[in-house]
Amino acid sequence: MVDLRPVGHVLGLLLVALAALMLLPMGLDRFTGHGNWLAFLYAGAVTGVSGGVLALACANAMGSGLTLKQSFVLTTAVWVILPAFGALPLMMGAPQLGLTDAYFEAVSGMTTTGTTVIGPDRMTGAPGLDHLPMGTNLWRAMLQWLGGLGIVIVALIFLPVMKVGGMQFFRSEGFDTLGKILPRAFEISVALIQIYLGLTVACAMVFHWLGMSGFDAVVHALTCVSTGGFSSYDISFGAYLGAPQVAATLFMILASLPFIRYVQVMRGDVLPLWRDGQVRAFLRWIGYAALGIVAVTMWRQGADALYMLREAAFNVVTIMTGTGYASVDVTAWGGFAFVVLLTVGLIGGCTSSTVCSVKVFRYLIVIEAVRIQLRRLRQPRAIHQMRYQGQPVTDDVLDSVIVFFTMFVLTFGALVVGLALAGLSDRAALTGAWTAIANIGPVWGAEVGPSGAVDAFPLAAKWLMILGMILGRLELLSVYVLLMARFWRD
Question: Rounded to 5 degrees, what angle do the CA atoms 473, 50, 157 make?
Fold first, then answer.
């Protein structure tokens, strides 16, 4: 049996930290004179007491560290349990969501998906994001920022050890390369927090310099660097067209690059960042997609070149990075652009970044595997060693990548069918599954509100999307392994 007490101790400490962070939106609402600050006070008290009791009850079980099985349990538990407490302010105060909607919003935040259930009500005319208390919009952004930071730490410390989806390829890079500089996981986390915080502060300063209010700059910086996409406006980033879009595009790209490279840059070694095959492929594919959309749209609709270049670059980046900001109705660009955007959403960014989806690394591994197989067919007697960035790719890495691709496709298909059976239209079911499993954000369909909110979705559809968001954020297999009886028995 797996001893869950160390997991409970860590979860308790995280809940206490989450409760402490609720003081920020509470203080903001109190300062602005909004009575919603009481919701954060009560939610913080419940969260802090629950976390404190759990941490103290399990404190005597902490030894030298977590076992591999405990790491699997902890990784999933964090993204299941913390959103439950993160949802409390949304239930106790504005916008007073029900259990399902509040949990959906919190999961969407912490998984950095960005799909929201909060929007102008088409039946009652109730206001949406624009009229929420400032503390609530700040809390939604904070959930995404915390989720983005958490997944970078998990991707560098836990997933390589778990050998999930080929991430064991980065184990030597994450530990041996850093081992001489950052010998312990805590120090790795500190370095990542410094980089993440630095990018966030820089982003907020640039946004404010380009015309955003101080509050909007902070909110959008938190959700831009985390590639989450929550906005404080129903029209999303459409409230800040022009120069802020260009800045957001840049910071979304920066947040999608391997954070391990930033650590090396901090230590004075810049070359690995540019030499990383993921980085170069990621930038190339963004360029191909954006220029293709610009060319076809201008040919068919005769749009202005500079306008289309800015909008195409912004929307390709926001979809490929899984940020999910909206600036225009991309469906008006035609079928070609829509298919391109759906495709890049299933690619994602680089490993050990805030981005989800399949990720560039796995596509490069599969492309190289196809090349090797073609060479073997042409030269069956020759020895062909599969390599990535000069390093040999072992069979266990290739097998893990293939299994991940297989499970991703099967899960995606199952989600589409499930959402259709739940009552969604074909387009909403397809894009709902796409946005959930790849943690992207936007959904299109007749059931989607004018602001992109999915509040009208059936309860079953919302819970299926919650499941998809958690599975996608945690690389599928780290969750599926918990469903095996043998995992708990051995």
Answer: 35
Residue 209 CA to residue 217 CA, distance in Å, equals 9
Report helix, strand and coil shares of the chain as percent, to nearest 5: 70, 0, 30
Binding residues for K(+): 112-113, 228, 323, 439
Number of neighbouring beta carbons within 10 Å of residue 487: 14
Tokens 């070694």, residue? 269
CA distance 224 to 250: 10
| DSSP per residue, 338-368 | HHHHHHHHTT---TTSS--SS-HHHHHHHHH
Taking only the tens place, the pLDDT of each residue in 258-308 is: 998 898 888 888 888 888 899 999 999 999 999 999 999 999 887 788 999
If we measure between CA atoms, which residue out of 203, 211, 300 comes closest to residue 249?
203
pLDDT digits (tens, 9 = 90+) for 336-379: 999 999 999 999 999 889 998 999 999 999 999 999 888 888 88
**Residue burial 334-351, b: 16+ Cβ < 10 Å; e: rest:** eeebbebbbebbbbbbbb
Q: Which structure tokens are listed for 436?
A: 């959930």
Q: Which residues are annotated as a binding site?
A: 112-113, 228, 323, 439
pLDDT at 174 over 60: no
Cis amide prior to 95 (ω within 30 degrees): yes
Local confidence band at 179 (pLDDT 50, 70, 90 cut-offs): very low
Q: Which of 311, 336, 348 is nearest to 434 (CA)?
A: 348
Residues 6+ apart with CB under 8 A from 240: 207, 210, 211, 212, 216, 220
- Measuring CA to CA, which residue among 235, 240, 243, 250 is closest to residue 203? 250
pLDDT for 354: 94
| Amino acid identity for residue 46 in this structure | V
* Tokens coding 97: 């969501």
Q: What is the pLDDT of residues 215-224, one digit of tens each?
A: 999 999 999 9
Give the DSSP H or E segment for 388.
strand 387-388
